[in-house]
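Work through this:
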Amino acid sequence: MESDLYKQLTDTITQIKPFNEEAAVLAMRHSDSLTKPPGSLGRLEAIAKQLAGISGQLWPDLSRKSVIVMAGDHGVCDEGVSAFPQAVTPQMVLNFLNGGAAVNVLARQAGADVICVDIGVNADLEHERLVSRKVVRGTANMTKQPALTREEAIKAILVGIEVVNEQVQRGCRLFATGEMGIGNTTASAAITTVLTGLTPEESVGRGTGINDAVWLNKVDVVKRAIAVNQIDPADPIDVLAKVGGAEIAGLVGVIIGAAANGCPVVIDGYISSAAALVASRIAEQTLPYMLASHLSQEQGHLKLLESIGLQPIMQLEMRLGEGTGAVLCFHFIDAALHLMQEMATFESAGVSKG
């Protein structure tokens, strides 16, 4: 069974096309012909270049956009790592579905859809807008055993790919990663520690706003989880299964699925970046398709992004998750494309070029 699932994953990875360098060069030439000093729009020009290289088009139509919010619970919450109880996960999922969360507000402003997926919530949820793809009812406590089996981890990755495929069929061409899962900064810190070489003291942050005592406990929990699970750092799926989460695995699939469909994917904060790190280790060819939206207040986030090779576009001192930073970044992507399409060239405007 696992071999069949893994073949589905590898088949998807083989569909990822190389970055189109020729289109990227054409985009930069066009940008340099616009009525401005070369490079004066900074990262906006770099975004336009990247989008051209991803799509093979000078200005792709990315008007249909979605933030995929993966939701799952974590058995490690039994170790007292969060300021909030696990019951908040299903409660917040219903908040997303009813349009009341921060990500809903920002998505409406950006003209994006919020797709909420139950991939591992430890509760029975029903809602007309819920995408129900439950792989597990919460993970196991990773301080005692692997959070997921290898088969469950691959299944969750495939769920992310399937959700993206469905949205692409509906016309979506731009994706953002979002998540909900009390305890998932602990799992993300463990993934970061194993795959980057950071110490738990460097990778563990304050999550939902924990105090010093809870932070010290969280550091110890990450150390115990890594020690007990005999993880192979050279095998990203092994890392994901043993100290990850269903929603993190789902986001790995979202990233791989977006790349396989030739679509850019905007990475949110610390948890989403942990998923991006795993995705890049499973399939390095996903990297050119990723844009890092913002620098989270989680202390390990910058080093995590650096280890992937991503540079955040914004720094707003956010630490909410849900996809909020990624959805905000949609505005910068829209701006980059509008500038490419609507600005006059030196020639068309009759402006002397320096």
